[in-house]
Amino acid sequence: MKQSIFFSLCLVPVCVLAAEPQPGSSATTSPHVMVRAAATQWGDAPAALPRGAQAAVLSGDPGKPGAFTIRLKAPAGYRVPRHWHPTDEQVTVIEGGLSLSMGDGSNAHAADFVAGDYVLLPAKMQHEATTRDGAILQINSTGPFEVNYINPADDPRKQAAAKAVEGKH
User: According to the UniProt entry, where is the signal peptide (predicted)?
Assistant: First the structure.
């Protein structure tokens, strides 16, 4: 009996050591990230969103597979026309207010959100976002980030391409 207790106690450190990721191993996860609100580096929002908003990548890379977190600063009157994403989108209102029209057909509903509120938009759920007075949103999702507009004419990438063609004539 004493031998089995001794043997079990000897295995505990071995199991703990085996479970710890080794330096340089693929078991290591995302890097440690800290972002102070005052130090946020804002830039233009992705081309898939209407002009006027600013974005900051907090962690991950929205253009690549994997988890990412971004902040979006939307000016007063900003609107993202009805669209959907191929992955879940988690939105937290950091400042201001956000109005969302979600779902389609008989599942359509709308809601207003204020600072501190959270909403999970499941993959492929149609939604439209607007802000009357401006907002800062935190968006957590899985990349690559894609925006699929219900009405292709609403897609700012296509609008920019059409203007570029017009400019050549």
Answer: 1-18
